[in-house]
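Worked example 2:
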Amino acid sequence: MSTTTTTPPAGDNPPSTNAIREADYIRFKKYAAWTFVVAAPILTALPPRKLDHYTVLLTSAWLVSANHLSREYTGQSIMERLEGRLSKPSSIMQDLPTERAHQIQAKLRAARDAQIRDGSAVGEELERLKRQQQQERSLAEKIWMGSETEGWKERRLREEQKALEEGKSYGDLILEHIWDVWNWGKTGEKKEEGGSKDEK
């Protein structure tokens, strides 16, 4: 009597222990992420509301969980999405159809800057060219530089040197800058107040 051993079909193989553990771990991460996404804002909003290390930990857990769920459901994490959006050119640049348009804009910009430098444009024409120059600055540059124009470093150094020669200290210069920011550039009020105190 002979016995034959038959191997079960490939689909009937029970999953290995490692595969079960891996599936459990993935399921655990998913449930933990959902728990933190829901619970972290609630725990942060409960009294006493204060900014301490617990709030920072809960916020970090919420961010990591949201990032994990985003990657789980969309295939891209939040950071990958942000990097993708930041690396794309702005919509203004997308409106320009060709490289030729970039070249023409660069030539026009160079010609306008040359007119401003040479002084060939005067009066209203000069003001118009300067306004165009200011409008072309990017939003980030406008925020960072404010209303400063080219050569601001040299002007600032000359003003600083003049103030130091008059006997002012760096502390006085810092206070003047703070005062200008506080009063939106209106320096006359401080001088009037100082003058009225001296008269008393």
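The radius of gyration is 33 Å. The chain is about 70% helix and 0% strand.
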